[in-house]
Amino acid sequence: MGAAPTIILRDDAALRVFDTGQGRLSVVFQHGLGGDANQVAQNFPDQPSYRRLTVECRAQGGSSAGSKRPFSIAMFADDVLAAADAAGLDRFVAGGISMGAAIALRLAARHRERVLGLVLVRPAWAFDAAPRNMCPYTEVAELIRRLPLAEASDVFESSATSARFRAEAPDNLASLLGFFARENAAVFAEVMQAIANDGTGVTRAAAAGLAIPTLVIGSGIDLVHPLATARELAETIPNAAFVEATPKATDKDRHFAEIRAAIGGFLNRHFNNQDQS
């Protein structure tokens, strides 16, 4: 991932920032809920022609939570923009996975003068707040906040939600169960509950008005990131390219390879040899 991470302070939160520090094309690319820079590295095709910046959001990765509440997609987007400012990135492609895609969409809609292009990988939000597909996150968060961790985990594992995910989306289930084992499970439960009940603040009309190159990537066997949500965004944003990747639950290596190839092809096709100043 290039140089060692740096730390920026936002309010009283210390946020870890990864910056590859090279390449003519700047890309701000964000992880999903509960993810970190390692998740980004699995999905993003780092190469010398790109300068990629990733902020580990509050209470995720190596970043602290800080005391400011409530957590929100808007808060995280503001943190990312501040990191881009600190790094001297005037214009950039915005992208991300799941929650990171929501952050990228908000940046593109709210800061059109800054965002050159958009990459949405396995989006979990379209235009409504608190989408039904995020309900399992609130279920997990409420259990963590109400019960001792071991008991909370047992209750969730025996729940109807867990049974459904075990049958229909085992990769999602593995992620949900992992939240009970986090060292910062209590504060991260606050993050989960707040973000799962939040939205991008971007309307369908605003997305339909985006006039930038856009790539949307979806995949199946995924109840948290419905393929229908990815298709809805691709159909709403003008001239957006849509790619359906092999499901992670089927073949993880192929899943990540296809996503990296799709992103690399998109960036080279639209931005290679262009002056981004």
TrEMBL record:
Cited Pfam families: Abhydrolase_1 (PF00561)
Stretch forming the signal peptide: none
InterPro entries: AB_hydrolase (IPR050471), AB_hydrolase_1 (IPR000073), AB_hydrolase_fold (IPR029058)
GO MF annotation terms: hydrolase activity
Species of the source: Mesorhizobium intechi
Protein name per its UniProtKB record: Alpha/beta hydrolase
Species lineage: Bacteria, Pseudomonadati, Pseudomonadota, Alphaproteobacteria, Hyphomicrobiales
Keywords: Hydrolase
Keyword Transcription belongs to the record: no
Annotated AB hydrolase-1 domain residues: 27-244
